[in-house]
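Ticket #4471: structure export looks truncated?
Reporter: QA, pipeline team
Priority: medium

Steps to reproduce: submit the single chain below to the structure queue and open the exported record.
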Amino acid sequence: MPNSTHVKINHPYQVGLLLGLGVLTAIALGNAVISIASIITSIFTALFITLGLEPLVQTIQKKVKKRGYAISIVVLGLLGVLTTVIFLIVPPLISQTGSFVTHLPELLKEFLQLPWINSLDNRFGGAISTAVNTSGAYLVDSKNWPNLLGGVVQVGITLFNGAIAALTVCILTLYFMSSLHSIKSVMINLVAKTQRKKVTLIVDQVIASVGKYVMGQVVIASINASIVFIVLLIAGVKFAVVLAFIDFLFVLVPMIGSISGASIVILVTAATTSPQTTLIVAISILLYMQIEAYVIAPRIMKRAVNVPAALVVVSALTGGSLLGILGSLLAIPMAATLLLIIREVWVPHQNKK
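Actual output as written to the record:
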């Protein structure tokens, strides 16, 4: 009798059945991933926050010796910063946001009266003014807000889920911070013993580089938003806090974020102030962007992973299309990690062949 254990499938029904089962399995796996997408996002968010805080934890640990003390100091410091932000920035931010929404029709009207916007609008047969007026009227009407956000019940559910997600990220961040070395040891033990030393060096480099990248980008965004706020405050531009906050969110995304944030600030300034003030604000912001690009960013990012500009843009756009601003923030460190692994592992392996 033959000893072969291979089963030949020649009947079309059997082939179709196996293909159908394969498709159903793929769909089930896809639905499972989609259903836990929020959990995966929370895990990666907490992980990158941990990596961003790790350089600070290590610096403090060198002075206090124990990692637990260093983590406690970092957490207390973050709580202090958040408390300061809540009491000093959030009230004027909420107030100016409400005023911004109230005056939005006037801002849009003044925006459409700008000479170059008016010229473009005439060239396109009034399409720009029609789109802007329609969008502005819809956004200003508070009756449309529940529909825009998915209904009153959906708004409540979204806020509740957001609070739960934030709490989950905080808990996961504390866990990752306290057990980062244990997690790293478990991962390294999965590798062959002969390769553990090399893998340890690579993992340490990834943690240090990505951590500095995340923290560095937050520092750059904070400096940028502070400069923008000071310039707008001196120039007497309305909604300085709101515009600085929007700029901060955009600048968190490297390269394209800085240009996008500056564009929004300059356009709002053009709609609310004189051409002379707009010119001064635009020159000040563009001048600072040059200083940031050639002086501040290289100094802050000198020990982080060097990510090519094209990869930054592609990663930011891909992550943004999937998860919005959060996706853009997470995509770039992930791309940096992958790039580092390729440089340190794949390229040397290929060179040996």
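Status: closed, not a bug. The export was complete when the record was re-opened. Leaving a note from the reviewer for reference: Residues 309-351 form the longest helix (43 residues).
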